[in-house]
Structure formats: C-alpha cells, structure tokens
Hints:
22% of the residues lie in helices and 28% in strands. It is of the alpha+beta class. The strands form 4 sheets. Strands 3-6-9-10-11-12 form a 6-stranded mixed sheet, with helices on both faces. A 4-stranded mixed sheet has the order 5-4-8-7, with no helix packed on it. The model has no long low-confidence stretch (mean pLDDT 92).
Amino acid sequence: MPLPKPEQKYSYADYLTWNEGERWELLDGMAYMQAAPSRIHQQISMELATQFHTYFKNKTCRVFAAPFCVRLDNEASDNDIKNVVEPDITIVCDISKLDERGCKGSPDLIIEILSPTSGKTDKLIKFDKYEKAAVTEYWIVEPDSKLISVFVLQPNNRYGRPEMYSEEDKIRVSIFTDLEIDLKPVFKTL
Length: 190
C-alpha cells in the first residue's frame, strides 16, 4: 500500500494493510508516522518497563513496551476504529481487553516518552484521547529535563493537576498503592 496521505482519514482496517516495518498511529483517523526512538528513549523505556514487569510478576496485570497496538475505540468493526496508538509502555489489568493484535479498549496506565518531534502530540492530542478513553493513569516522560508528569483520572472523568517528579524521586503509582518506581536508575545513564 502507498504511504498514507496527510489529508485523508483512515480506519484500523486500513492500518492493518500498512507495512509492518513502519510504526503508525491513528488519531481521529489521521495517520501519524512514528520515528525510530533514540538510544536515551530506549534506555528510559527499558528501565521503566523492567521495574513494572518485576512488580507484576505472578500478578494479573501485563506490561507491554512499544511497539504494542492499542485500539482506544471499542467499536465492533475494524472500519469504525479511528484511534490506534502505540504507547511507549502500556499496562493492562483486564486481560479480556487483550487479543492477538494488542489491546482493545482503555489500558490502566500509559507512559509516553517525549522525543523532539512528539511533544505536541503527546501533551495535547494523545492527552485528550487518553482522557476521553478513560485511561486511569497517564505519564509523560521528558528526557531532556529528567521530569515525569503523572496524570490521574478523577471521578469527573478528567485528569487532575499533574504530580511532577524529578530524577531524585520515587513515584508511588496511584492505581497500585504498594508500587514505587525509583527514578534514579531511569535517568542515571543520561
């Protein structure tokens, strides 16, 4: 299939026909190509995923690192799904949402690690999509400033004011109260 056109709207059915060697996301049917992550991005992702994976060993929740497809829409037909993302880290506790293609519905926690080109998309567009899809907790990691913003869904189905963490902190994960993520090793090698 030829590359998606910026002005055209696509569905998950279209997405499934694209080259598997390329990383694409759909936001309201608009196609966004994902650049290959940097070494620093990968180091941060690996350390965070390792800490989560260690905690979830022998528990029902599952941790997935990108590339991992999340269909935010709960539409029955692939032609009706217009929001498909590949978060850097995805945590799903309701395993009925998992299938051979990834996750269909809202994960419990999503982490996006900013790159020089993804800031606007992650902070505005995806923020809105994750909030509307009722993703319980959303983290935005900023490698350059060594900061993490944690947004937690409130009873009004909106994200509250973010909790901010730096490289010296530990994050107590709100949806898993006995889990702390130590940020020293996350940012240590930067």
